[in-house]
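Q: Sequence in, structure out?
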Amino acid sequence: TQSIPITAYFLLISAVICLSTTGPFFNLQQDVDPVMKIFWRTSATNCILFPLLIRGIMAEGIPSLDFSQWVMVFVAGFSYSCLGIFFVLSLDYTSVGNAMILNNSQALILMLGKFFVGERISNLEMMGAAIAFSGAVLCSVDAADQDPKAEVGGFDGKNSNMTLWGDAFGLISAFGGVGYLVFAQKVRSQLNLYIFMFLNMFQNSLYALALIVVSGREYTWDMERYHGLFSWLSPSSPDRLLLTVIAVVFCNFLGVMGYIRAMHYFDKLVISVAGLMEPVVATVLAYGLSVGLLPGWKGWLGNIFVAGGTFLVIYRPPSKRVDGASKVAH
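A: Exactly. Output:
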């Protein structure tokens, strides 16, 4: 074991900030189906990762994993896809507030899981997770108050049949996030980082494409601006190729990969609670890019709760040791 270096905290903070750009960058691409945006971004990520994949295979060879490890790679990719796709789907049926609350319940699900399997949870972790989740609820309520399109339904029974589906999708998204943290942390040390990321994103793009086709969403096999599967390659529109590449660098390379590297130093619960900071940072970024509003008083109070709770979960005195998530970080 080894003590957590200060660079690990900077790594986790930078990952939170970079992944927080996902929403604001998504909003800059107007009048496009969200699932199509997911396909564009993962396809672009695959194209950029492909040379790094080849380099990794040439340097280390084809990964020699056993059957159970390959299953974990598959489940990690499937879980990551569920995290993003089901959250997007939940917004079609329930309120923004409900979707965000359920999606942000990953920390509580992990904490309950650790409790039932007998893993030790410190008092600081329990208190911090509860405070941070309470703050996330306040932020979600504030977001719903400010967004007139958000009143689709809710736990109050409005449009209950549709809302039930939306809430279910939001909960599936949360379990997807938990599954990704669990399985990615288990198998990541057995794979080159770029090989793992390519396999993960390739699965994500396949699932997004399958959903587009099966659900009857409009699509074309060309670069048509709104429905073309390859529209992101259009160099003439600044919100297509240029924006997609920038988003890939910040969200996937610095954000997602930052989280994967941070798994070497921090427990799954720490990673999931740190993720609660993303909506806080995203709100400020969205306002700066003129695609969002600053929060109201409930939002600011929620932000303080999230920041304080996250600090309680993440903070480790110098005497504390790494949880031992993995042995190697490439």
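Residues 160-187 form the longest helix (28 residues).
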